[in-house]
């Protein structure tokens, strides 16, 4: 390192130490950089090949010794590594691992519960359907969590969910929005869709189900006396008709027979939960006949069992499965007892409650499909959730075989969103060779910022960095989070330029 005096060296050392504290706050806001605009911007690798012992494309049974070719932000093709290797020099063989599509979470409350979207993405969920919370436009899929918002839940005045979770009179920035007429319902549906809602959710919930989370006090506030006000059949019908006329699906929260039947009469597309209370067999059969899809959330609602009868969410699930119901995976991220990412226990419960008297490998594969290809199809975003040609390059990989142990999926060693690498623990990102290679590449890529080239790399307790005296710029990598950092001496603002794992495929240093 050259041309730097002791006083400034001390200054930068203090700044770097302080950044540890600052960055923890920044990451709690999904990694937003409040210190100024990002100066460096990693593009997409022109191509990359991932190979592993197993590959699941979201559609077919897992295949042995296969690879996936990614070009930019899309899947190009899958095949044996020997077939693909001539198409791209940027290759990683993951060894005894399994490559899969990024998972789709079909029931979450990311916005309402202020869940860290980066944490969800880093744990293998690349797409989320946000089903109840402040309305926002569709976002992500390009290195950030793809978020599909349903906005606030349309509800009866004085009813669920505002009566349990708060939010006053409700609104487009709350968890619920009340309507009292079909005219008002039409307007709210239209407003939600105009504001970016990718689906509409309504509540038909009078309360009272044994073991339901909404029957527990929240923030010390007692549960309101049941039955709760519920949307009329006419209003429910109007909500579904308006949403369908505008090309959107309708989800419903319904936990017992009255709301369940009203939802079926209205023609809903999706039950956001398998109901908590015991549902009549004729209604369950009718739901299957109408082609309604059920989001599971079994782990979250596992206590929904009537102690007197032993019936509830588990018996409903088994009965629906025996009738041929359609299920998609949902874990209700944002609830206080489930992971912020893939939930192995949810997958386990789906398998054991939907497979009948015996479990075979087809059942196991169908469970993973419920969180990948089947979910993508239901959201109307196919081929999202697959690794077929043209699909978004949302890819995860885990060491070992998750078809033998679902728990492995909770800790993916590789996560790619839209072709951008978010996590890659298959390579030693912080190795001196990787860092030297990357910084040297960056000098050639950004000569107007990193000049003159060929500066010595300095290693501190947390950072490996180079100082460029001509441009008075620092560039380096933090061992604390493996992010690339950049700082101009003139303003002293330390900026995160994202994970080194995102830069390595682009630089050819992996």
UniProtKB/TrEMBL annotation:
<dbReference type="InterPro" id="IPR051781">
    <property type="entry name" value="Metallo-dep_Hydrolase"/>
</dbReference>
<protein>
    <submittedName>
        <fullName>Imidazolonepropionase-like amidohydrolase</fullName>
    </submittedName>
</protein>
<dbReference type="InterPro" id="IPR032466">
    <property type="entry name" value="Metal_Hydrolase"/>
</dbReference>
<keyword id="KW-0732">Signal</keyword>
<feature type="domain" description="Amidohydrolase-related">
    <location>
        <begin position="98"/>
        <end position="420"/>
    </location>
</feature>
<feature type="signal peptide">
    <location>
        <begin position="1"/>
        <end position="28"/>
    </location>
</feature>
<keyword id="KW-0378">Hydrolase</keyword>
<dbReference type="GO" id="GO:0016810">
    <property type="term" value="F:hydrolase activity, acting on carbon-nitrogen (but not peptide) bonds"/>
</dbReference>
<dbReference type="InterPro" id="IPR006680">
    <property type="entry name" value="Amidohydro-rel"/>
</dbReference>
<dbReference type="Pfam" id="PF01979">
    <property type="entry name" value="Amidohydro_1"/>
</dbReference>
<dbReference type="InterPro" id="IPR011059">
    <property type="entry name" value="Metal-dep_hydrolase_composite"/>
</dbReference>
């Amino acid at each position: 390192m050259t041309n730097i005096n002791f006083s400034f060296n001390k200054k930068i050392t203090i700044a770097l130490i302080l950044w540890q504290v600052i960055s923890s706050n920044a990451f709690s806001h999904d990694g937003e950089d409040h210190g100024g605009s990002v100066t460096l911007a990693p593009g997409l690798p022109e191509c990359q090949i991932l190979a592993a012992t197993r590959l699941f494309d979201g559609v077919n049974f897992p295949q042995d010794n296969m690879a996936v070719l990614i070009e930019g932000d899309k899947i190009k093709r899958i095949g044996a590594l020997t077939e693909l290797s001539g198409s791209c020099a940027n290759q990683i063989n993951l060894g005894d691992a399994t490559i899969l599509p990024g998972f789709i979470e079909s029931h979450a409350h990311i916005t309402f519960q202020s869940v860290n979207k980066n944490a969800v993405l880093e744990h293998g969920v690349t797409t989320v359907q946000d089903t109840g919370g402040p309305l926002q436009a569709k976002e992500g899929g390009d290195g950030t969590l793809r978020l599909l918002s349903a906005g606030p839940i349309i509800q009866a005045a004085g009813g669920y969910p505002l009566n349990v979770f708060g939010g006053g009179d409700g609104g487009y920035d709350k968890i619920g929005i009340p309507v009292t007429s079909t005219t008002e319902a039409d307007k709210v549906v239209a407003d939600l869709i105009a504001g970016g809602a990718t689906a509409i959710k309504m509540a038909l919930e009078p309360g009272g189900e044994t073991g339901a989370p909404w029957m527990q006090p929240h923030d010390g506030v007692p549960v309101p006396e049941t039955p709760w006000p519920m949307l009329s059949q006419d209003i429910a019908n109007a909500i579904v008709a308006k949403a369908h006329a505008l090309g959107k699906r309708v989800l419903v929260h319904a936990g017992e027979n009255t709301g369940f039947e009203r939802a079926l009469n209205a023609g809903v597309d999706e039950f956001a939960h398998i109901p908590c209370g015991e549902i009549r067999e004729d209604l369950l059969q009718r739901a299957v006949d109408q082609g309604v899809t059920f989001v599971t959330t079994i782990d979250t609602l596992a206590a929904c069992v009537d102690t007197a009868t032993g019936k509830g969410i588990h018996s409903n699930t088994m009965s629906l499965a025996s009738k041929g119901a359609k299920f998609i995976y949902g874990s209700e991220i944002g609830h206080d007892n489930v992971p912020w990412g893939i939930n192995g226990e949810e997958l386990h419960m789906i398998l054991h409650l939907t497979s009948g008297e015996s479990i075979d490998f087809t059942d196991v594969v169908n469970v993973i499909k419920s969180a990948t290809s089947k979910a993508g199809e239901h959201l109307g975003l196919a081929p999202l959730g697959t690794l077929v040609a043209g699909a978004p390059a949302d890819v995860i990989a885990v060491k070992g075989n998750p078809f033998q142990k679902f728990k492995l999926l909770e800790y993916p060693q590789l996560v790619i969103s839209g072709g951008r690498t978010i996590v890659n623990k298959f390579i030693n990102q912080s190795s001196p060779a990787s860092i030297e290679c990357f910084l040297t590449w960056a000098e050639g890529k950004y000569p107007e910022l990193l000049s003159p080239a060929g500066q010595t790399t300095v290693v501190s307790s947390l950072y490996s960095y180079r100082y460029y005296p001509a441009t008075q710029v620092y560039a380096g990598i933090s061992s604390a989070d493996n992010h690339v950092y950049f700082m101009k001496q003139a303003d002293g603002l330390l900026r995160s330029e994202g994970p080194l794992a995102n830069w390595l495929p682009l630089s050819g240093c992996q």
